[in-house]
Hints:
By secondary structure, this protein is mainly beta. 14% of the residues lie in helices and 38% in strands. Strands 1, 2, 3, 4, 5, 6 and 7 form a seven-stranded mixed beta sheet that branches.
Amino acid sequence: MYPEDSVLVAYVPHVADFERISREGWYRIPQRHAPQGFQSTYYAFYFGRQFGEQKWAIHYYARRLGHELLTRHLLLPAEPEHPRANELYYKVQLGAVQQLERPIVSLRWRRITFIHTTWDRLQAAREINDLLLEGGPYAAR
């Protein structure tokens, strides 16, 4: 791990999504909504409201190992009737999920889909605003 390694903070709305990340080692991103730089070295996971005490915070991360493009139906065959079953998604393969030494919290509720940051910022951050970059291709605007 290097300080300048790229990290993509990705929203995880449902506990079942994080269970899939942990158990099966992948995260999905609709191709039409994929952020620039989704090929980051690491992914960190921002939990939504369904996570109870862990909501609106980052507790875990994983190394990105690769990605492939598949239809949602191939990713989630148990949901063949889903309205987006035939849309393309990136299946981002991940290494083992690791827990941060301390969570990175949002001091107020905010809608986050993706945040680009760096490894050194992820390690030093205490709250979400500490992750935001100034300048460069992924700076907050």
